[in-house]
Specification:
Layout: E1 4-6, E2 10-11, E3 14-15, E4 25-27, E5 32-33, H1 36-56, E6 62-68, H2 72-88, E7 91-97, H3 103-115, E8 121-124, H4 134-140, H5 152-160, H6 168-179, E9 188-192, H7 199-207, E10 214-218, H8 225-229, E11 234-237, E12 255-258, E13 262-265, E14 273-276, H9 281-284, E15 290-291, H10 298-315
Helix pairs in contact: 1-10, 2-10, 6-7, 6-10
Length: 317
C-alpha cells in the first residue's frame, strides 16, 4: 500500500483537535469505514427506551405510513421502516393504496390522519405516481405531524434555526460526524446535490453555529466541481449518480459521506441488481480518512432518526 496522508485530527489514540487547512502527516493507513449499522442500532435502542417512558404516561406513539403503488424500491424502504417501528415498540399504521388512486382520495386520507389524535406522525412514501403532485401532498400534511421534515413550515424553521422537524437523512449525516468525532468547526464542507430532502437542509444544518462549517453546494451549474470537491475537509455526495465521486476528486484525509443509494443492474445478483453509492468506494477508501459504505451507512441512520422524529411528535416537542 502506498503512503497516504494522515489527517491532523486522527492519530493512534483516536480523534484530536482538527485545524482546517493544517498540513497533514504522511502515514500509511486505510480510511476508517463508518459502521452505520452499529450507530443505527444504538439509536433504535434509545428510541425503544423513549417509547417505554411514553407508555408509562399513557402515550402510544404512532406513525401512519402511506404507500401508493408497488414501486420495488418504495416497498423495500417501507418494509425497513415498519421493521424498525416494530423493534422499538412504536405503533405503525400501514396504508397501502393502488397506483391509480386519485389525488383527491389521497388528500382525504391525509386530512383524516391530520385530525386523528392517536396518529402522531404521517409519512407518504416518495416518489408518487405521476398523476399525483408531490408538492401538494407534502403541503397537505399537518406540520405537527410532518416527521419527514419536508413541509415548507419545517424547512422554514430549519432555515430560521427554530425548533421543528428536520429531514432524517441530513440528521443522519450530522449524527455520523458527531459520533466519529469528525470536527465541523471551521471545516470546509462540500455537498454534491441541492435537493430539498438532503442538500439544502444539510447545508443549513452545517452552517449553524453548533456546526460552524463553511459550506459549498455543487450542482449541475457548478463549473469544475471536481476542483471544488478537492478543497473539502468533509465531502458529502448526494447527487444520485452511482460512482460519481472518484479518488481524484477527494482531498487527502477528507471525511467522505456517501448519501447515494442507486440500483445498478447486475445479472449475477439474486435480485438482478446491486446497491451502489455515489462514491467509488474502493478507490476513495485509499485516500479518505473516513468513509461511509453503501449499503450500511447513511441509509440506516435515516430510518433510525425517523423513529426519533416520531417520538418528538408524540411528546409534542
Amino acid at each position: 500500500m502506498k503512503n497516504r496522508k494522515r489527517p491532523p485530527w486522527l492519530h493512534a489514540g483516536g480523534p484530536s483537535l482538527f485545524i482546517p487547512g493544517a498540513s497533514v502527516l504522511e502515514k500509511s493507513m486505510p480510511a476508517v469505514i463508518i459502521d452505520g449499522k452499529a450507530l443505527a442500532q444504538r439509536l433504535r435502542d434509545r428510541a425503544a427506551e423513549r417509547t417505554k417512558k411514553l407508555a408509562e404516561r399513557g402515550i402510544k406513539p404512532c406513525l401512519a405510513v402511506i404507500l401508493v403503488g408497488e414501486d420495488p424500491a418504495s416497498l423495500s424502504y417501507v418494509g425497513s421502516k415498519e421493521r424498525a417501528l416494530a423493534e422499538t415498540g412504536i405503533s405503525g399504521l400501514d396504508i397501502r393504496l393502488p397506483a391509480d388512486t386519485p389525488e383527491d382520495t389521497l388528500l382525504r386520507r391525509i386530512a383524516a390522519l391530520n385530525e386523528d389524535p392517536l396518529v402522531h406522525g404521517i409519512l407518504v412514501q416518495l416518489p408518487l405516481p405521476g398523476h399525483i403532485h408531490e408538492e401538494k401532498i407534502i403541503m397537505a400534511i399537518a406540520p405537527a405531524k410532518d416527521v419527514d421534515g419536508f413541509h415548507p413550515v419545517s424547512l422554514g424553521n430549519l432555515m430560521a434555526g427554530r425548533k421543528g422537524f428536520v429531514p432524517c437523512t441530513p440528521l443522519g449525516v450530522l449524527h455520523i460526524l458527531k459520533e466519529y468525532a469528525i470536527p465541523t468547526d471551521g471545516a470546509r464542507a462540500v455537498i454534491l446535490g441541492r435537493s430539498n430532502i438532503v442538500g439544502k437542509p444539510l447545508a443549513n444544518l452545517l452552517v449553524r453555529k453548533d456546526s460552524n462549517a463553511t459550506v459549498t453546494i455543487c450542482h449541475t451549474g457548478t463549473r469544475d466541481p471536481a476542483s471544488v470537491c478537492r478543497e473539502a475537509d468533509i465531502l458529502i455526495a448526494a447527487a444520485g449518480q452511482p460512482g460519481l465521486v472518484s479518488a481524484d476528486m477527494v482531498k487527502e484525509g477528507a471525511a467522505v459521506i456517501d448519501v447515494g443509494i442507486n440500483r445498478v443492474p447486475d445479472p449475477e445478483a439474486k435480485k438482478g441488481y446491486r446497491i451502489r453509492g455515489d462514491v467509488d468506494f474502493e478507490s476513495v477508501r485509499e485516500k479518505a480518512a473516513f468513509l461511509t459504505p453503501v449499503p450500511g451507512g447513511v441509509g440506516l441512520m435515516t430510518v433510525a432518526l425517523l423513529l426519533h422524529n416520531v417520538l418528538d411528535a408524540a411528546e409534542g416537542v
